[in-house]
Amino acid sequence: MAAYRPGVLIGNWKEDACLEEDRLRDFMHKRERGELLIQKINKLQDNLLKKIQLSVSKDEFVHFGDTVMLLNPDNKSLVENYPGVCGSLTLAINLDEISMYSAKSLQVPCGVSAVKSVEPVGRNSFCVLSVDGGAVGEPIRFGQNFGLGTTGGFSDQMLYLASDHKSFTRFAKKSYLQQVFLTNELSYLTCWRATFLDPQLRLEYEGFPVPANSKMIITHCHTNRSLAVPRNFWTRSYFGKEYEVICHTYLDSHKAEEDKNYWEIVTGNPSDEDGTMIHRPNPQPRRDQKE
Asked: Is the dihedral of CA 16, 22, 26, 28 positive or negative?
């Protein structure tokens, strides 16, 4: 049987050529509008990992309108049982791979997790919001309700940290305790309050300004359960292995919260625009001050 030459057109060659032209035209149209999957992923990732400058506290207190990070300090008591969970963790937006591939912006409800990165970026930076009429710039006080919002590095949306009582259909995926999530509506589910760390001094400190970069308890107002990172439950996200964040109050034998419930509201470093107070070195005593 004689073979065809390379220049011979066989089959539905006209339809195949037109189909290829349509595919190329559709590709060029989507690329111009930024609708290609790789473009959506890159845009979402660039916003989530964009560097954010935290607010600098001049009086060492936390104020309404401040851009901060929520840091769960190093949990040394769990190192023996769980060697891989040492180090400080920050509260961050959690996106799985399906969300990254299917959305060009943050969708609600959106999950949160604790990450090992302590650099302020879009996904782990939050804004302290007033929910009871407090003016921007006023310090928040122990026992006062406030909200925590994040843009995730985007400029056209704001999501709010929220929680609700667990039910048969609403619970944390790993621990089955009360879940924490992000929503786009301010309500009683998005109200939080700061509590002084020492239970014996809480009544005395009620109404005092909340100091920045110091340990405290952050409690959900509606459920009266505290924000926590158990550190023995981890989840897989687009950015790798991260730890589950829940609302649950862990009490020791003295009826005091455990370090799983400890949080620090981290502000910016006044001597470094891109740094935070956790990177600021401790002041060294001068020679003339030594005994």
From this structure: positive
